[in-house]
Amino acid sequence: ATYDAEGYTHFMRKEIHEQPGAVERALGGRLDERFHTAHLGGLNLDAREARGIRRVKILGCGSAYYAGQVGAQLIEELARIPADAEPASEFRYRNPVVEPDTLYIAVSQSGETYDTLVAVQELRRKGGRVLGVVNAVGSAIARECDGGVYLHAGPEIAVASTKAYTSQAVVFALLALHLGRIRDLSPSDGRRICEGLRRLPGQIEEILKQEDRIAALAADLATYRSMLFIGRVRGWPIARESAQKLKEVSYVHAEAYPSSELKHGPLALVNPELPTVAIVPDDDLLDKNQSTLGEIRARRGRVLTVGHRELGDDSLVVPKSEPELDPILLTIPLQLLAYHAAVALGNDVDKPRNLAKSVTVE
Ligand code: G6P
Q: Which of 200, 185, 187, 162 is nearest to 63 (CA)?
């Protein structure tokens, strides 16, 4: 069968709705219920090597980079290995120190992004060990890596990444679980994460049912010239990815900021003309986040919260997951928000101006 947006107005909307299935496939056969861990066949990394990893560095571009930021947090939380993400393009141009006990991970939907590919080649030249988290099987980046994990998300056509992004985050959770269980993650925490992962597809279905309400909110928010997206720790990569998504498809200016940094700058911009989207999960930072919301409201800024309870004038509520996995679900309503803002403004959603699905040149 040919792949088209049949039954859907756009590929982006179709791919948002394909996410429960994409997550099922990313998890497929990889969870081990007996030892509460994950098996990832293509890693080429035995337990002794995995224990020797001192640091993890994740490289990607665009949404893949933001998925990498979510991944770095998961690896640091579950496996207790210092981890961070960096744009592949920055990494390749700054003559990075390549360490033998660092695990490098390249993340890419297409597997063809030039900046990511060159970063991998530079790493290999310098003896770095690189894993790929890639969707396209047999792609250039997948072939260059020492091992890796495929997403199995299926083809993604819309320029703005949705299901591949979510599958990347899920694969990072599997990798973090795998590394964690080789190191210090307890069997009971391993079981907790396994069970949380299994619940994700059904929980994504629940979020997708809120589409009509999100579309109405999006049409309203699309009338503003600019928006602020804020989040703290686990919410911070979500704010970045969601602001990016809104910009890409709606062309509404959006700026992402860590909630904690608001008072060090962007609070000066807050007024009734600048709405804020705040990522506010029910976790140990809820009180801190609520006081940030108070500061915005005191300047009569409109607030849309995305979290696990009604918190403001407008709230999008998603099902609760395990705290480490919450970012995977909190992103989904904001994909729909960006999509429907673009539709409300009459934009070419699947092919935003000036952008390409895969940037294979310098
Ligand atoms: C382009 C696309 C983005 C994508 C990025 C990385 O900039 O417009 O949507 O996230 O490339 O692509 P990749 O295929 O490496 O994930």
A: 162
